[in-house]
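Quick one, probably user error.
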């Protein structure tokens, strides 16, 4: 039993992280180091100081919370979940970095018949992953690169474990959405799209979402006093990805740009 997890936000009334109106519980801590990460304050598993641009003072990001405290917070919106077919989404950081606590929280949500979703990188042992997905109504799994060495170059870890868990989710017929963050000069070329198609056809992924690169996290690197490799890199928009999207559609993989 783990008593507490480090949480850096609980966002109410989200409509982008699963069906209906949702509360999103953001877990702090991530074993990956994507060089484009828009939430660098989520990477360390402990509370940390970040300069606040509004108050001009340092503020602490992250707080240790119990399952009970989170349940009290998210159940305030129970009526909205019922009316909108919404629920609660675990996000991060990487929620499965604190998998035991995430499992306890999901069990409590299921006891209350709340729809559960999780946004994850899938970088976790398969026995742990399986226990978690059995408690989920929707799973959102990021696949950031098809090539394991490129994966390691851009993110710090290889992709084999993630692909193993992708296959496990497909085998268990989990309600799965595969997402690719499209990062300029990393996985954004039409050749990259073809390689993703090859991978998804091999394992049987039929629908994906692609997330165009944005710069919403740029300032956070300044506030954390950390370097940012993609400073001033141009953002991508859905119109930039029409050909990329079409490659999936032509291969029979439905592709939504978010
Ligand atoms: S997996 Fe997500 S939270 Fe972790 S480093 Fe990558 S973008 Fe950031």
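Nope, works fine. Designed sequence:
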């Amino acid at each position: 039993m783990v008593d507490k997890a480090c949480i850096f936000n609980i966002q109410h009334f989200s409509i982008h992280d699963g069906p209906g109106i949702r509360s999103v519980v953001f877990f702090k801590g991530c074993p990956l180091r994507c060089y484009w990460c828009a939430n660098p304050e989520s990477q360390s598993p402990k509370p940390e100081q970040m300069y606040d641009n509004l108050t001009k003072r340092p503020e602490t990001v992250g707080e240790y919370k119990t399952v009970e405290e989170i349940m009290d917070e998210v159940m305030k919106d129970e009526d909205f979940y019922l009316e909108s077919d919404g629920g609660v989404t675990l996000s991060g950081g990487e929620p499965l970095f604190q998998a035991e606590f995430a499992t306890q929280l999901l069990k409590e949500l299921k006891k209350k018949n709340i729809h559960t979703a999780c946004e994850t990188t899938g970088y976790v042992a398969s026995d742990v992953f399986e226990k978690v997905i059995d408690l989920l109504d929707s799973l959102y799994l990021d696949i950031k690169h098809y090539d394991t060495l490129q994966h390691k170059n851009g993110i710090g870890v290889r992709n084999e474990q993630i692909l193993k868990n992708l296959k496990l989710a497909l085998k268990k017929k989990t309600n799965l959405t595969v997402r690719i963050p499209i990062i300029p000069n990393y996985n954004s070329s039409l050749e990259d799209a073809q390689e993703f198609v090859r991978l998804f056809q091999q394992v049987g992924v039929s629908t994906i979402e692609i997330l165009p690169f944005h710069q919403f996290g740029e300032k956070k690197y300044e506030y954390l006093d950390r370097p940012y490799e993609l400073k001033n890199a141009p953002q991508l928009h859905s119109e930039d990805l029409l050909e990329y999207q079409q490659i999936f559609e032509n291969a029979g993989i439905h592709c939504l740009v978010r």
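Residues 30, 32-34, 37, 39, 42-43, 92-94, 121 surround iron/sulfur cluster (CB under 6 Å).
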